[in-house]
Amino acid sequence: MSNEDNKKVILKVYRTNYNKDDSPHYDKFEVPVKRWTTVLDALLHVKSYSDSSVGIRYSCRMASCGSCGMKINGRPSLACYTKISELKDDVVVCEPLPNFPRIRDLVSDFSQFFSHHKNMKPFIQNDKVSLDIDDKHDLVEFEQTHEDVDRYLQFSYCIRCGLCYSACPTVATDPKFPGPQALSQAYRYEADSRDDSKKTRFNIIDERHGIWRCHFAGSCSVVCPKGVDPALGIQLLKGHMLGLSKNNKKLSNLRTKNKE
Known about the structure:
The chain is built from ten helices and seven strands. The protein is elongated and about 60 Å long. A hairpin with a 2-residue loop joins strand 3 (69-72) and strand 4. The protein folds into two domains: 3-108, Beta-grasp domain (Ubiquitin-like (UB roll), Roll); 111-259, Fumarate Reductase Iron-sulfur Protein, Chain B, domain 2 (Orthogonal Bundle). The chain is 36% helix and 13% strand. The strands form two sheets. The chain has a five-stranded mixed beta sheet with strand order 2-1-5-3-4. It has a two-stranded antiparallel ribbon with strand order 6-7.
């Protein structure tokens, strides 16, 4: 039997229950690990054999649902996607995600995060199509080229795990700031050739707590597990907004000259 088969690590888990006013503290658990053991595997081992009261949130176990986001050794990560062997540390510290209200142990409240997401109207809007069964308009098929799809495809991979939101320094100081996830999704639909509600979304984010509060720290893109690069989406969105503003100014000047 190799030393790897006998390897154990210390799992240091943040514990508290805000519904009961418990004092925050850390509990330590010794967990056996293999080369392929993930942090989520280790936490489930703790729940099965050491302390079933440890609060965690998880679902798919394959980095698709985004449920198991937490801070692991100081970095926002998905527990199911993080192998303990890759951490190269004998102590693994699990904490709830920053910038989120905490509920219990490693479980955070995502209500505000999803509210920001919904405010961006994250769906295709087009006045040429009506899904009302009583409407006489026929359904229209919108064909897209590969170039059309490439403009937004990268940003459609977002799984709303909240890691970018937890890493954003602006969110930490301004809870009204939509955050990188919501803003990058605004760009995802702004860049979609089937959508014609660009000005509506621009009006939502062009305010004092909106897109201009982003200072391009880039930490959101560093922690994204799906390679979405929300920081890029925000900068592209800024460019589109400035372009629209410039075009509107030209149009306004042209109208003024015509009146003269």
